[in-house]
Amino acid sequence: MKLTLGFSPCPNDTFIFDALIHHKIDTEGLEFEVSYDDVETLNQKALRGELDITKLSFHAFAYVANQYALLDAGSALGFGVGPLLISKKHFNGENDAELQTPDSKLRVGIPGKYTTANFLLGIAYPHLQNKQELVFSEIESALLNGQIDLGLIIHENRFTYQDKGLNKIVDLGDYWEKLTGCAIPLGGIVINRNLNHDLQLKVNRLVRQSVEFAFAHPQSGIDFIRQHAQAMEESVMYKHIELYVNKYSINLGEEGRKAVDTLFKLAQERGIIPAIQENLYI
Fold it and tell me: 22 an active-site residue?
């Protein structure tokens, strides 16, 4: 049986899925037709219901929870992993009045409307509404050439912005942790609810085994990871993996589910996402 599967070319996702799609584990008769896309493209595909299984941001999940259920394996949650708000010019820290003014005209580059990064930006800085959607890897360049005033960066750009002379204003992951005490939920793996429940459980089991294989054999997928890592230095690749792949990627557990539930509760209370009736999990 063949299932469609979407995930990003970022090292954390290729690290997680290498063993699954290359049959380094027993896939129990399942084959996977893979799409490699940036997170916002994956979000849009989920909104259109195009894939059987897909990575997506937790913000986007709120809009497709009636169609997809969250696996316990494969998610990206953690402490110290949040998006960063950065700039070319110097601001006076996260409480700079220019960031908090109700009629702010500051132009903000975001990696997508439905990203969890944009959700956190809305919580922390509700007045920053002049947003431009950009591919995440283009945000640093847009700051440097003056196209935008602020940039919301994710993924490996956390490790490269300083080398380009850009400045951190605030770590929105740190903001979230102080607000809730929870790990920050960034992205999850969801599966179409129309698929047989036993099949959903099988996929969850296989994704977990794929993560466990990757942890047990960290060099096994290096060529595959490098192939999709956009000429990233190997040291940056492994920093990226260490930051986003952890115990929550093996199994959300009670802590991980609490973090996801807290995110959705806060977002619904603030009117950022619609009310959700379905159980989020498989």
Answer: no
